[in-house]
Amino acid sequence: MQKNQEANQLLQAEYRIFGEKVKSARALLGEPANAIAERAKLSVSKMSRIENAPDSYPIADDELTRLALALGVSRNWLLEKPRAVISAQSMNFRKTSKMKAAHMQTVAVWETLMAELIDSLSSKVRFMPVSLPSVSLSEVMTPELAAVETRKALGINTHMPVDHVIRAAEKLGVFVQTHDFDDELHLKNHDASSTWASLASGPTVPLMMVRTHSSWERTRFSVAHELGHLVMHRYGGGADKEIEANRFAGEFLFPANTLWEEVPEPITLASLLPLKLKWGMSLQALVMNLRRAGIIDELRKKSLIKQLSARKNSDTGESWRTREPGADDRRVERPMMLGSAIGKAYGKPPRIDELLAALPAEHNNWYKSMLINFDLQWSKDLNVEMRLEAAEKQLHMGQEDNVVSLAQFRAQR
């Protein structure tokens, strides 16, 4: 009976929606398909067919209205063809083993939104060509050699530190975005991700999404790790690709030949601190580099890592493994290229409403939240504005205790 009813509805369908849009909206809500189906008064089987349709799927007028309401999006947004599609399967992640498939799908949606933003800007701004090396790993081409090739593409020899890893990636044509992923929304196990995105306007571009983090060491290593994925794993990779990306990142940040020349005697956590600050990597990553280069053995590596956990910051009580010495000695890196393109296309400061109107969603808070982490003054100002709006909303809801003053907001910029 139900199948006959659905068949009749398909014959009477007035609209065609895109399953990728439905999955995207649902992923951002963090809800399972059956919950959305129940609110939209659709069968779970029909919801599955909509989401997994290879192209568009026919739907009746009243079903479209109910589904849009259930997802919190406009009808028109569901009807518009995606400007970019990125699957979680095509992405590389720097993550913990606790990250689930649903969480990866959520990150894939954010990268899709990023790709749509780039696609929208491509009609107004000419982006620099991609000059990122692409290598296939073999017995001859190792992750370490791939890192050296990438340094050569940047004009950085093996005796020079990489001053700003995000800026280096952007120089190679990689679009980098940092985002404030919500721990409570299950993304605490995600540090960074990367992929190649095919845009509706034609080009295929490298993207990188990095979790906004207070640790400059972790941010730099995560970006170098994802850069390794983009260089080495564009067309796939084996079971060891995370290890390969770590090897790439270690060599990219501090090449082994120079490490041999600069390694202190004796090797202690204290003696490694000057190298940490010069080369811009954590003590833990330095220890791993020393092991990979054959400078220390496995026993010494384990001893140094244990010392990181055992030593405590006398002021905070945190272990060095949690927060290393030198944590405040460098700024956390932020991207600039995409934000600069927005400024060229829409003015400085950019006309945000005009930018949002050009994007394929009426729920522009999704896109607006992507604009607040660029290393540009207008982006920092927008960050303050959005946080004030959130504070005012809390105030209206009677949550005065959670409101932070404007002075405090500006002090944190």
Detailed description of the structure:
The chain is of the alpha+beta class. The chain folds into three domains: 78 residues, 434 Repressor (Amino-terminal Domain), CATH 1.10.260; 223 residues, no CATH class; 63 residues, no CATH class. The chain is 51% helix and 8% strand. The chain is built from 20 helices and six strands. The strands form two sheets. It has a four-stranded mixed β-sheet, sandwiched between helices. Strands 1-2 form a two-stranded antiparallel sheet. Helix 2 crosses helix 4 and helix 2 crosses helix 7. The longest helix has 21 residues. It is globular. The N and C termini lie far apart (60 Å). The C terminus is likely disordered.
Largest sheet data: 4 strands, mixed
Q: Into which percentage range does the β-strand content fall?
A: 5-15%
- Overall radius of gyration: 24 Å
* N-end to C-end Cα span: 60 Å
Low-confidence stretches: 400-413
Please give the count of helices.
20
Report the order of strands and helices: HEHHHEHHEHHHEEEHHHHHHHHHHH
Structural class label:
alpha+beta
- Which word captures the global form? globular
What strand line-up does the widest sheet have? 3-5-6-4
- Count of spatially separate domains: 3
Mean pLDDT: 85
* Number of beta strands: 6
Helix content: 40-55%
